[in-house]
């Protein structure tokens, strides 16, 4: 595959953990735990393929609707994976957390801020982790910041353009989103990177996230490479 046929930035909607566990008669959190292992492996598969950046949807602004024990299980899993995320940051990988981390427990929040800060000059690969992330929330925040600046006469509302919003999104330092992969059979964005996905390609797959393999990634990227992206042109 030629370089421009490899997506620079892939978004992964890591879905299907609960169903995967249920099929095995196990608690849903067992599925999340398996899913987290696949998350770790997928980072390396992306790097091997020459992808520059991968963003993983780990917890949405809507996922708080789940039973407290499931939410707690996911947060504890995050605590366990912080070590691995730190290790990745040592391999010249930059970590960017997308989402409002303010409501997360203090220990998790401080670790994440530190990992983001200490990895910000890393250049080999970018891992985005969407945590308490919602695309609508992201755009609403940008709107609020711009409104405050306009109120303070720091900007002229007439000069607000797409770029003004883009600069305020969590992805401002990432390459444009080329491909969104959603396993689990669902065919929707569920509030993931809704602005950024305006011209992304989508590959929906029937595999459940804990069963997602390197071959699945390869086949999604192959499908991407055969798409004709026109961006409104001809
Ligand atoms: C995705 O798997 C993980 C999170 C949303 C945290 P799900 O938990 O949504 O799995 P299904 O969709 O119920 O199978
Ligand atoms: C999207 O999956 C969120 C994550 C994968 C973190 P959901 O399972 O929450 O999405 P819906 O509810 O099926 O749309
Ligand atoms: Mg789901």
Would you write up a description of this structure?
The protein is built from seven helices and six strands. It is an alpha/beta fold and 234 residues long. The protein has a six-stranded parallel sheet, sandwiched between helices. It is globular, with a radius of gyration of 18 Å. The site of one 3-methylbut-3-enyl trihydrogen diphosphate has 11 residues, from β2.
Tell me the major beta sheet. 6 strands, parallel
**Helix count?**
7
> Helical residue percent?
40-55%
Instruction: List the strand order in the largest sheet.
Output: 3-4-2-1-5-6
Q: Give the N-to-C terminal Cα separation.
A: 23 Å
Q: Which residue ranges are poorly predicted, with pLDDT under 50 across at least 5 consecutive positions?
A: none
How much strand?
Answer: 15-25%
Bound molecules: 3-methylbut-3-enyl trihydrogen diphosphate, magnesium ion
What Rg, in angstroms, do the CA atoms define?
A: 18 Å
Mean pLDDT: 97
Tertiary shape: globular
Classify the secondary structure makeup into a structural class. alpha/beta
Counted beta strands: 6
């Amino acid at each position: 595959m030629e370089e421009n046929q490899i997506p620079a930035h892939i978004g992964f909607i890591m879905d299907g953990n609960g169903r995967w566990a249920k099929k095995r008669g196990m608690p849903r959190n067992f599925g999340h735990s398996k899913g987290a292992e696949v998350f770790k492996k997928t980072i390396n598969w992306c790097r091997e393929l020459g992808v520059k950046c991968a963003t993983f949807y780990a917890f949405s602004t809507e996922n708080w609707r789940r039973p407290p024990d499931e939410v707690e299980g996911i947060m504890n899993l995050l605590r366990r994976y912080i070590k691995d995320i730190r290790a990745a940051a040592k391999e010249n990988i930059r970590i960017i957390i997308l989402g409002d981390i303010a409501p997360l427990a203090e220990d998790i929040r401080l670790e994440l801020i530190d990992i983001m800060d200490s990895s910000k000059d890393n250049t080999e690969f970018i891992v985005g982790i969407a945590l308490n992330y919602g695309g609508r929330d992201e755009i609403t925040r940008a709107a609020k910041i711009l409104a405050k600046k306009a109120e303070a006469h720091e900007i002229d509302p007439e000069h607000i353009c797409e770029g003004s919003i883009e600069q305020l999104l969590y992805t401002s330092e990432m390459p444009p989103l080329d491909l969104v992969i959603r396993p689990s059979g669902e065919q929707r964005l569920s509030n993931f990177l809704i602005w950024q996905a305006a011209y992304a390609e989508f590959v929906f797959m029937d595999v459940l996230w804990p069963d997602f393999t390197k071959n699945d990634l390869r086949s999604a990227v192959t499908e991407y490479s055969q798409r004709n992206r026109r961006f409104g042109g001809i």
